[in-house]
Design a protein that fits this description.
With about 80 residues, the protein is α+β, with helices and mostly antiparallel strands. The chain is about 30% helix and about 45% strand.
Length: about 80
Amino acid sequence: MDCQVLTVEPHKRLSYSWNSSDADAANGMPLTPTKSGVLLRMEQTGFRPEDEDFFRGANYGWQKMLSGLEQVLARIG
């Protein structure tokens, strides 16, 4: 899969895009400091109305991956 890093702002934001055979997409991950740590917000763009199945798949996949990330960070925090 072709990927491209779009933005790297240390301690602030990471974004990248990719092109698969099915759809073009971009992810943004802004980081916001909080009193107890950092809030990571996941943003994904690039879905067209006809990409509903891809949107559902991405929604499921990101929830699973971010939950796993949360568990890993809790162990090392």
